[in-house]
Amino acid sequence: MIGVAAGTSAGTADAVRTADRLGAAARRPFRPYTASSYFKHPVTGHPINEARTQAFQPFMKTFPAQARFRYPTISGVDGSDWGTAYAMGSRQDPVWRLTGSMDRQCAILSSRGFHAPDWFGSMLTGTHDSPFCVIDRASGYTVFGSGARVVGNHLIHVSTAGITYHSSNGLTCFNPRSDDRRNFSGRGRIADAMVIRKDLMDFGLANRTGLGHVLHLFMTETNSADGFCNPMVSCEEGLNGFGAEGERIALSRHIDLGKRGMSPAGLVIAKTLQEHGAYFGDNAGKQSTFKAEQENRSRPTWHGLLNRDSLRGITWDDFVVLERPRHSGRRKHR
User: Are 219 and 319 in the same domain?
Assistant: First the structure.
């Protein structure tokens, strides 16, 4: 983004941000994975499970942690530290490396590492999950980590890590639909779906589109008895909420989103939910939420464009539950 100098008037700053968005209209941001990937696949024509939909809507109205919130909230904005630290790396950026608990597919992240800007470490939140997603264009893979904290010079300690190659369909190697044995992600989560990116938002605003990919919903609580389905490959145990991990929901195509009174940014996300939907990923332990690209005082990414309640114009009654794919099961948390 073009820098705004100290002392610049509010009107001039708004004009600069508008120019940035107009510029975004001319350059389509990079979205990883193959064109047929689950990550990019729209819900058009996908059958609706009417019985599941009729069960989902009252659950979201009555479940104690969810009942006060009639719509999904957004984390990582408005002073929230619960978003996803995000960066896109290039060959000109320094190399970062990971240490800590990692599967064998992620060993390359300790040795070769990944490219990310120098400022990236300052975005890690220090919360108990402290997630990050880095799209390393130079190396051709997306890196995910949780429990992340800087412990040395361009060195990050993680409690979990993931890696997915951009030339693939983005699914973990444990998923029978995966086309790359090098991919690994905990329980099958798609790291790129776990963050609302600012550059994709700018493109959506400039072109009146959605973000162009499925979203990962941090669901208030799933139901362990329902197991899991694509893209997930296992589920957390001991939970009694609603739905399988991986079950997909979408805003009904019959809703006229333009009449819901949402902000432009809220409308971009709502269009995303209507076109690509969201799958139940991690359990939130509170109200259901999406994670935005994390901002802080040193990098106020959103400048008030997006806030916790940007989706206030929709309700859970506007959502439908889609039919589950055949790939499903009851494997425990991995």
Answer: yes
Q: Give 212's contacts (C-beta < 8 A, 6+ positions apart).
A: 31, 40, 200, 204, 272, 276
Tell me if 277 sits within 8 A of 322, measured CB to CB.
yes
The per-residue pLDDT for 17 is 59
- 15 found inside a domain: no
Domain boundary among 191, 220, 254: 191
DSSP letter assigned to residue 312: T
> Are 203 and 278 within one domain?
yes
C-alpha dihedral sign at 219, 225, 229, 234: positive
DSSP letter string, 45-106: TPPB-HHHHHHHHHHHHHSTTTTT-SS-EEESSTT-S-SBEEEEE-TTSPEEEEEES--GGG
pLDDT per residue as tens digits for the range 50-94 = 999 999 999 999 999 999 999 999 999 999 999 999 999 999 999
User: Which of 132, 165, 191 corresponds to the end of one domain?
Assistant: 191
The answer to whether 143 and 131 have CB atoms below 8 angstroms apart is: no
Report the half-sphere exposure of 275 (CA within 13 A, side-chain side): 17
Domain that holds residue 205: 32-81+195-329
Q: 91 with 115, same domain?
A: yes
113 part of a folded domain: yes
Overall pTM surpassing 0.85 (yes/no) = yes
Residue 203 DSSP one-character state = H
Is there a single domain that holds both residue 72 and residue 214? yes
Q: Are 213 and 20 in contact (CB under 8 A)?
A: no
Distance CA 297, CA 302 (A): 11
The enclosing H or E element of 278 equals: strand 278-283
